[in-house]
Amino acid sequence: MSTHKSDDSTNSLHKIYTNDPILFKSYVNEKVTITTEDSNVHTGIVYTVDPVSESVVLMQPVEGEEKMKMKILMRPAIQNIECSFDTKVILPEMFVPPPNHYSQEELLRRKNSVMKLLIENRFPITEDKGVLCIEETVRIEPPYGPENCICLNSIVLNRIQTILNRVSK
C-alpha cells in the first residue's frame, strides 16, 4: 500500500488563488476592446476588475457629452480582451461627495446648530479642529450634515443622523 499522495491541491483551488491580480491591475485606466461570446465588441476604459468573479467594469464616453456610462461585463460572457497599454487614461472619481459651497459664517452657524441640538439631546460634544466629536465614537465633519458623520456602530450612527436631519439646511 502506497502512502504517496498526489498533488491535486492546485486543481481543487478556487480560481481566485490561481489567477493573476497584477494582470487585472494592469488593465485599470487602460483603453480596452472586449469581445463577448455573442460577438459584440465593447470599447472603453477599465475602471476596475473584480478579482473573484473576474467581471470587468468598463467606462464608456457618451458621444457629445462629458459624461461616461458604466458597463459591467461578466467573465463568463467575455471571450477576448485586447488592451492598448500605450496611454493610461485617468478616470474621474465616481464616488466623490458634492463640493460644499458654504461660507465660513454659514459653517459656523451650522456647527453651532448641530452642537446645540446634540447638547439638548444630552450628547457630550467636544470639538477638535472644526470636527465635532461625541465620546471618541462619532465624528461629524463640516458641513455638519447627516452624511458627514463617521461612526463604526451603525445603531449609534443612525441615531445621530436622525437627530441631525432636524437641523435646517
Automatic annotation (TrEMBL):
Q: Which residues form the AD domain?
A: 76-169
Which domain of life does this protein belong to?
Eukaryota
**Pfam families found in the cross-reference section:** Gemin6 (PF06372), Gemin6_C (PF20417)
One example of a Gene Ontology biological process annotation: spliceosomal snRNP assembly
Q: Name one GO cellular component term.
A: SMN complex
Q: Which CDD domains match?
A: Gemin6
* InterPro entries the UniProt entry points to: AD, Gemin6, Gemin6_C, Gemin6_Sm-like_dom
| UniProt protein name | AD domain-containing protein
Species of origin reads: Nasonia vitripennis
- Please spell out the taxonomic lineage of the organism that makes this protein: Eukaryota, Metazoa, Ecdysozoa, Arthropoda, Hexapoda
**What is the gene name?**
100117696
